[in-house]
TrEMBL record:
This is Non-specific lipid-transfer protein. The lineage of its organism: Eukaryota, Viridiplantae, Streptophyta, Embryophyta, Tracheophyta. Residues 31-114 form the Bifunctional inhibitor/plant lipid transfer protein/seed storage helical domain. Keywords: Lipid-binding, Signal, Transport. One of its GO terms (biological process) is lipid transport.
Length: 118
């Protein structure tokens, strides 16, 4: 059971960190990459551990999402996975960029319109 919850929480974190959304065919960053970057954030976002090495993943994902298409793809991935992870504290997940010193110009939320992410 824990093996299923962990990947689902990672995906939700990605959805909450909605860093980008773009046409699937043009973006270079897929959901698998988003999950890989944000995996270290799972203990923190589920109130089961400290921030730890999470910021390395947040900063890595932020750096990897170079184009509007990349950022829109990341956003859409995070949104699509957000509803699948009930153990994730959405407020903690939304606060990860600030906690990690990453400044993004939009609100991280499942209601974010990813098509407007530049």
């Amino acid at each position: 059971m824990a093996g299923i919850i962990k990947p689902m929480c990672i995906v939700l974190i990605a959805a909450v960190l909605a860093v980008a959304v773009a046409p699937r065919g043009e973006a270079a960053i897929g959901c698998g990459s988003v999950v890989s970057y944000l995996n270290p954030c799972l203990p923190y976002a589920t109130n089961k551990g400290p921030l730890g090495s999470c910021c390395s993943g947040v900063k890595g994902l932020y750096g990897a999402a170079q184009t509007p298409s990349d950022r829109q793809s990341v956003c859409n991935c995070l949104k699509s996975l957000a509803g699948s992870y009930p153990d994730v504290d959405l407020n903690k997940a939304a606060g990860l960029p600030g906690q990690c010193g990453v400044n993004i110009p939009y609100k991280i939320s499942p209601s974010t319109d990813c098509s407007k992410v530049n």
